[in-house]
Amino acid sequence: MYRTWIVFAVVALVGVGLAHATGHVAVTLHANADTYLTEHDGLGGSTSVHGDDETLWLIGRSGRRAYPIVRFDLTDYADCRVEGDSVTLSLELIGSWAGASVTQSVSVHAVLVDWVESTASLANFGGSGFNRSIHAGPPLVTRNVSFAGQAATIDFGLPASVVQEWLDDPAANHGLIVISNTNVTQRDLYFSSREHSEPARLSFDLTTTQTETVSPRATYLSTCMDPQAEQPVSIPLVDICARSGDPILIESLGDFAYAPQATEELGQNVFALFSSSDDFNADPNVLHRVPGAIDAGFEDATGDTFFTTCGDPSTDIPEDFLVRAGQPLKITIPAGATHLFFSPGDEFYGDNVDLDSDYAVRITRLAAADLDASGCVDLSDLAILLADFGCPSSCPGDTDGDGDTDLSDLAEVLANFGQGC
Q1: For position 420, what pLDDT does the model report?
Q2: Which class for 296: exposed (0-12), middle (13-18), buried (19 or more C-beta within 10 A)?
Q3: Is 12's pLDDT higher than 70?
Q4: Radius of gyration for the chain, computed over Cα atoms and rounded to the nearest angstrom
Q5: Confidence bin at 178 (pLDDT 50/70/90)
């Protein structure tokens, strides 16, 4: 049986190369709403509704114009960070008027008002009828689009800032409208809608890794006898597009010295603490200074940390955990956690120095299928799963959280193969 799955997996992955983790994840979304607005009597006129049509017509001729509009559901990625400067809108061009070879100058714009796929028409768009100067933003990109007798994918490179605005403010996401600038008869083009075989697609990368410098003098622990100690750094988990239930990898990087005259020690531990907010009590006499602290539920890591000048190890923020130098820690974000606090591994902070400014932490959101926590779903993850296949509970090859290693876990690895690589 195992041999059968090995053959199946190898066949499925033929030609796929390996690479190092890149700190981002590729996302491709299909349109969750699309239609076109038109004044063309042959297409139903200005009051016609086309939310169920299999085609999206694009016409620039005055008196016959047609404008495809599409929208994408970004709910799962709200507040995440887009990686890079551009995103890609892909439309499947499937035909032209009478099958002729035609070219149009085409621009893509952000839609500025809300619309409903099942009711939108040129006459009622925006409440009083479509008005380009009111209902469409400035051109995001303009390019020539040609039909030469066969279907083709047409890509438009858009500024990443457009999608980032939608992630930061979901209410601003009204989608995109495609406009022809070619006011010539018989240059009509039409694209596939989501009711057809190839809906519009929006592709972009999201940041999943962040490296944050840690001051060796900063701590979330009580520092009543340590006046030179500093307040700790906290990282919003949304900065790596991570939320409760997501696996992440935490790494301690670099080193620092325990006194100005001391030598920096290679490899320093760091302590970490999940919290429901970035709230921090600045009073150095308070023992528990992170009011939103959440236990990570990771028995090998949680519990008492270390003695401090004022603290009691039996009560000193038992929710925190240790990340050892050179030993990256894979851990699941607990329910309700939105931030990570960090503190160097020490008892007295005010005299610590980082001469070369390399002491830092790196956090990376992992795919559930990234079984070896490398940041990349590759052949090593497949090997772990296959070696563990059939395990009934508490299994290293479990990717879907049900405890066992079975076909659903294999499907998860294959579906995500190459992610983060």
Answers
A1: 65
A2: buried
A3: no
A4: 27
A5: very high
Class of domain 29-206 as given by CATH:
mainly beta
d(CA 245, CA 78): 16
pLDDT of residue 312: 52
Q: Taking 60 as the threshold, does the pLDDT of residue 97 lie above it?
A: yes
Going from the C-alpha of 320 to that of each of 65, 261, 273, 392, 394, the distances in angstroms are: 62, 30, 4, 31, 24
Distances (CA, A) of 248 to 74, 238, 331: 22, 12, 6
Tokens of 338: 């939105």
Nearest residue to 270 via CA among 299, 305, 240:
305
SS3 270: strand
Distance CA 409, CA 137 (A): 44
How many Å apart are CA 180 and CA 102, to the nearest integer?
12
What residue segments make up the domains of the chain, in order of their start? Answer: 2-12+376-415, 29-206, 208-373
CATH classification code of 208-373: 2.60.120
Which residue type does 77 have?
A: Y
Q: How many CB atoms lie within 10 A of CB 142?
A: 13
Quote the pTM value: 0.77
pLDDT at res. 403: 75
- Asked whether this chain's domains 29-206 and 208-373 adopt the same fold, the reply is yes
d(CA 229, CA 219): 7
Three-state SS string over 87-135 comes to EEEEEEEEEEHHHCCEEEEEEEEEECCCCCCCCCCCCCHHHCCCCHHHH
CA distance 325 to 334: 23
